[in-house]
Design brief:
With 287 residues, the protein is an alpha+beta fold. It is 27% helix and 33% strand. It starts with a strand and ends in a 7-residue tail after the last strand.
């Protein structure tokens, strides 16, 4: 293993990590890396062999007690030589003492179990053009909700709402994630209260929606349809936790089909978040 060096990822390295993720079929967002860097500037590592990039990983810290592993990829020409596992240990060392989560692709889940990760649920990507108008509820009238530009709400309201569905505050990341150019962030509001939030972003393939939070299926449906209107072709993909059966039922009813699956796994008990309102996770790379 002479000549193997692990360093923090540069801006160019972050571009390379996105390219590798795209080659794996993960359909990364075009500008995700900018929000990722804000989340934890030192949380992205790359390993080089004699100066050539060989593997990458993200090990992002949230708050004082949570971390998330992502982007665990080895350059195909360097696989099977032990570089990936060395980088894995470096990432896990960075998150020592924290509850750690990840979204593990099927072929790696046994290896993650050996490293102490336990499955909590599966995030199943559903993709397609929403077919139905969706349940009613938006619009005027008593008890109706309104879909608005999320930027019109105080950011503190958005951050507090996000905290119901994520183990730690992540204000800097959320601010960038919702406001990057080319994205659309919409909120559902009823009687002055936020009851839903969704963000759609351009990707290599289908535009990805995440997060998608909602107080009820009709709220999620309205957000999903409105977000799809902000894509070039109306085709979207959303990573749906099967721990929320209402979410799975909703996207199936809208004609979206499963195309990809990853297991959400943790090194300890799953955090106490509001799964009943989680219709689509933010990112398989950062949680």
């Amino acid at each position: 293993m002479t000549g193997f060096e692990i360093t923090g990822a540069s801006a160019a390295d972050m571009d390379l990590m996105r390219t590798w993720a795209d080659a794996e079929g993960w359909n990364p967002g075009d500008s995700d890396r900018f929000a990722f860097a804000v989340a934890d500037p030192r949380g992205f590592l790359i390993g080089r062999v004699d100066g050539e990039p060989a593997a990458c990983i993200s090990a992002v810290r949230y708050g004082s007690g949570f971390g998330f592993i992502g982007f665990y990829i080895a350059n195909p020409s360097f696989r099977g030589q032990g570089y990936g596992i060395r980088l894995w240990h470096a990432g896990m060392d960075r998150l020592a003492g924290r509850l750690v989560g990840l979204d593990g692709v099927v072929e790696q889940q046994d290896n993650y179990r050996k490293s102490g990760f336990l499955p909590a649920w599966n995030n199943v990507r559903h993709e397609g053009r929403p077919q139905s108008a969706g349940p009613g509820g938006a619009g005027g009238g008593a008890g109706a909700f309104e879909v608005v530009d999320a930027a019109a709400l105080p950011f503190g309201v958005l951050a507090a709402y996000d905290r119901r569905f994520f183990p730690e505050a992540r204000d800097s990341f959320l601010s960038a994630w919702t406001a990057l150019p080319g994205r659309t962030a919409l909120a559902a509001v009823r009687d002055g209260r936020i009851e839903g939030l969704g963000v759609v972003r351009p990707c290599s393939g289908a535009s990805r929606i995440g997060p998608l939070y909602a107080a009820a299926p009709q709220v999620a449906a309205a957000l999903l349809h409105r977000l799809a209107e902000h894509t070039p072709d109306g085709v979207v993909a959303v990573d749906v936790p099967n721990a929320n059966p209402a979410a799975t039922e909703l996207v199936a009813g809208l004609g979206l089909v499963p195309t990809f699956e990853a297991a959400r796994m943790y090194t300890g008990p799953a955090p106490d978040i509001e799964l009943s309102g989680l219709y689509g996770v933010t990112s398989l790379e950062l949680g």
